[in-house]
Amino acid sequence: MDDRRVEIRKAALRMLDERDGLGGSSPVPPEALPFGDDEAGRAVVGRAMAALRSMDGVGSGYEGRAAKLRGSRIAWLAAAAALVAVASSALTLAFVRRGSPAEVRFVLEAPDATSVWLAADFNDWSPSGYELEKAPDGTWSITVRLRRGASYSYNFVIDGERWVADPAAPSGLDDGLGGVCSSLSL
Amino acid sequence: MAKRPTSAPRFVAAAILLAIGVGAFAQGGQGSGGQSDQAAQGKEQPDGTPAAAASASASGRAGADTGERPSSEARGEATRARAELEFMRWLDSYMPGGELETTRARLREMAAVAIEAGVPADAIKARIREAVAKRVSAETMLRAIEEDALRWRWVARLLDGSDWPPDDGAAELYLAVSTALRNGVGEASVAKLIIWAKGAGADAAKAGAALTTAASLSMTFRGAGAGDAALTLLRSRLRVRQYSAAVELAVRARTAGVTPERFMEALEATLGRGGSLRDLERALFG
What we know:
By secondary structure, chain A is α+β, with helices and mostly antiparallel strands.
């Protein structure tokens, strides 16, 4: 880079020398200014520019600036692409998460029960296949995978005949059939 | 040369728009509400009518003028007739036995009228299954389903042949409406929610969950009603899974002596204005 600057400097000095008639093979009349609008001036400028163009790396100043701009543009594009990737990933994740089932654990304390089943709208109120397991402390539980984004109504069925609402649920709902059920939002 | 750096923010803006577009497409596929659900819920007109509602009703009128309606009505009739036939077959297989003939006949009558009105047969089936599972008497079953059928026909009239809710979420919504009405939520509140949700094309499952939660809020305050809690919840930033937490706050509020009116006011002033559950908690308990 320093060599290029030196070369440029030399070329500029040659150009000034030519303008002042101090060097070169064809002295220039003093009135012929290098940037003047006469033929001699244009010739000096033409030679100087030709010398500058012929030198290696002379254009590097412009190229450097262009490269810088290209780099900046690439950086912006990369940033935009990254932003799109992150945003669409987040949205896809939310989309998938929303459609994915949630694992819900239903628990009932009923130490004296011999069996507890879960009957709900998500199993058509048919407890078959939804029997809770008893723990040594007398609690019964079952984990069920349910779709997110909806609410569900359910009951526990104790010993095959007692339909009870979940005592741990904040409130019960009149089921219109003379009983109370619980609801859950996921 | 100087324009290039300034074009970079345009790239970023375009990228953001693209990302939003992709997201909207994905959400649309799901049926929305989501909370970004909320993003799909449409903008309101100055009079409070959702934009999509205005557009839907306008297209309905256009259909009538251009003669499209009769063919769509014919299709609707055919669909209902098929649903009715399938329901009758299902009922005969689900409740076989001579001793149930009277009950079956009554259920057939009720179902025929309801399905004709646009009530999804799956909602009726669900209630029959529940009643049979709970081994209630035939009389209790018939009374309950008759009451529900009346409510559902009212909903069908409100929806007026609309494409909303989509078939796969319709039964859930109808069941949620009857649960809400049975548990103290007012007809006017339910109607507001349905009209808004229909216009905004809201997620039917979410609308149903909002109704069920409003029913729970009402029952938390011993059937005192829930004001417009269902609509407030549906339009709020809350996700469905957070609805239960709102009911838990209502239980705490009741225990602390907060009146149902005060609770509903706080709900509207917080969740109704884009606030969070924490804001509601602060409004209730300081």
